[in-house]
Amino acid sequence: MFADHRPHPPLPMRRSRRLFLERCSTGFGAAALTAMMQCNGWGNSGGAAPEAVLPDDAALRTFHHPPKVKHVIFCYMSGGVSHVDSFDPKPKLEALHGQPMPVQVERTQFNRNGNVMASPFTFKPSGESGLPISDMFPEIASVADELAVVRSMTTPVNEHAQGNFVMHSGFPFMGHPSAGAWCSYGLGSENENLPGFVVLQSGNAVVPHGGLSLFSSGFLPAQHQGSVLKADQAEAIRNVRARGLRDDQRRRMEFAKSFDQQFLNQAGGDPQVEAAIENYETAFRMQTSVPELCDISDESESTRRQYGLDSSDQEKAAYARQCLLARRLVERGVRFIELSCLTKGIGAGGAANPWDQHGDLEKGHRAMGFQVDQPIAALIKDLRARGLLDETLIVWAGEFGRTPFSQGSNGRDHNPQGFSVWLAGGGIKGGTWYGATDELGYHAIENKCTVYDLWATVLHLLGVDHEKLTFRYSGRDMRLTDVHGNVLTGILS
């Protein structure tokens, strides 16, 4: 058998795109399949499973180790929840109630310090694990066996704005990327029609002290900054409205895209220009995806009741909607979701820090606990029932704890020396507590932890070595954990 070297008839000079696809592959179907495989992480994997590599928009090309989770939900308790009134019981406070502190008192935010103050809340063992949780959170107590409580968290700052920046970015000032931005940058998006980092708000929720810079992408490409989504407004994301994507609109967008590409080329591929173009294109695609996300008419009445959407308490119902949308965002592949507390009338803290009770702590904390307790417990149960909790990590934290002594007659000041946070979900050893504060709940004395340790652990569960997720900026390889951080292996399953 010899090869046929006779000349073939010349191809026509004018070739249609259809002919090109037919000759180069097997047509439109193969092209569409290739695009879908790339979006779902199949690209360059040599036929491996989708989990083997990251999406094409990820800064990391492969996971550093097999991931335990794909998504993070950050329930941020702005203002500083009192650990000695929630997840870290201290009988010694009751024994010494009303007496002067038996140890040296560190300077506090307002430095108007009183005597030892017993908790007005009652603790009881919860779940099969016996995890102690106060009656501020009766519904969260019902999912105690899902929680790993870290009782020895610390922070180097004692003021709200600085504390918020540290908890979000690891640094006490603006200009550094939020943890959500780092996750979006490093791991990419599983849904090209939605942002990788979404901040949910509803009702009278406002941004904590520090402002929108808390959700900033900092020196990372701008498309990774947090997109604020108003969960209960007709226009959930500003200037993104529901409308049919007509053919003429699509043609206009393609026409504009061609100019954008020319400008990007002229700018030498400037990453900020590229990020701006990506943001415009994502906003275009969100015109259909965001309204569909926020339309919860397909949710059952039992689900709505489970979350508390039917509550007569407006703040609770509004926070419940955030929790429900968080589950829907997880279902749609969003990488990082942050929830926002709402201000809560008389007895609660200021609008930007509603957990901040320098006076009348019992009333304010009970009101805030009532707001978030049922919705968060429902979120955990719903994710578990749908088989999503094993691929989702929930992080619950404020910027610091509160003092074991009173401020005034019945409030507590800020305490950064030792406080509690908790995690739940994939890769977490539920029904456990890690670390300890002293018998007064004042200083962390066992397995002392930092915010860097917390985020190192989150990244580890996402399949990322926190020391290798870096971005070159000002001559230095920057990272979320700076030059610190150790994975909290004691809470991992």
TrEMBL record:
Pfam family, one: DUF1501
Gene3D superfamilies, sorted: Alkaline Phosphatase, subunit A (3.40.720.10)
SUPFAM superfamilies, per the entry: Alkaline phosphatase-like (SSF53649)
InterPro entries: Alkaline_phosphatase_core_sf, DUF1501
Superkingdom of source: Bacteria
PANTHER family the UniProt entry points to: BLL7424 PROTEIN (PTHR43737), DUF1501 DOMAIN-CONTAINING PROTEIN (PTHR43737:SF1)
Protein name: Sulfatase
Originating species: Stieleria magnilauensis
